[in-house]
Amino acid sequence: MRLDKYLKVSRIIKRRTVAKEVADKGRIKLNGILAKSSSDVKFNDVLTITFGNKVLEVRVIETKDSTKKEDAEKMYEILSETRVNAGE
Predict the structure, then answer these.
(1) Do residues 10 and 25 touch, judged by C-beta distance below 8 A?
(2) How do strand 28-30 and strand 46-51 relate by DSSP bridges?
(3) For residue 36, which of 13, 47, 51, 84 sits 20 to 30 Å off, Cα-Cα?
(4) The pairing of beta strand 54-60 with beta strand 33-34
């Protein structure tokens, strides 16, 4: 499944266009390697996403084409969530 679609369906990022933008700016790593929005996401992959002041690391548990809001969180497991101070 495409990275941008996975981020939208799992609701880590609400809109696919935003997910694509974040990936294209080099803010997402897939298993430690810089990822593009078209990168393929599979079971057990580790995603590291840098939001403005936060770094979120998640492990992919499942990939679905669509999901209900309640089930979206079951698609991934949060490994770490770190705050980053922009001044450092």
Answers:
(1) no
(2) antiparallel
(3) 84
(4) unpaired
How many other CB atoms are there within 10 angstroms of residue 3's CB atom?
Answer: 22
What is the average pLDDT score of the chain? 93
pLDDT in tens, 23-56: 999 999 999 999 999 999 999 999 999 998 999 9
Show the domains of the chain with their CATH numbers: 3-83 (3.10.290.10)
Q: What is the mean pLDDT of residues 54-83?
A: 94
Q: Please list, residue by residue across 18-33, b when 16 or more beta carbons sit within 10 angstroms of its beta carbon and e when fewer do.
A: ebbebbeeebbbbeee
Q: Which of 11, 3, 29, 30 lies closest to 72 in space, CA to CA?
A: 11
Report the candidate in 54, 38, 35, 36 with the shortest Cα–Cα distance to residue 46: 35
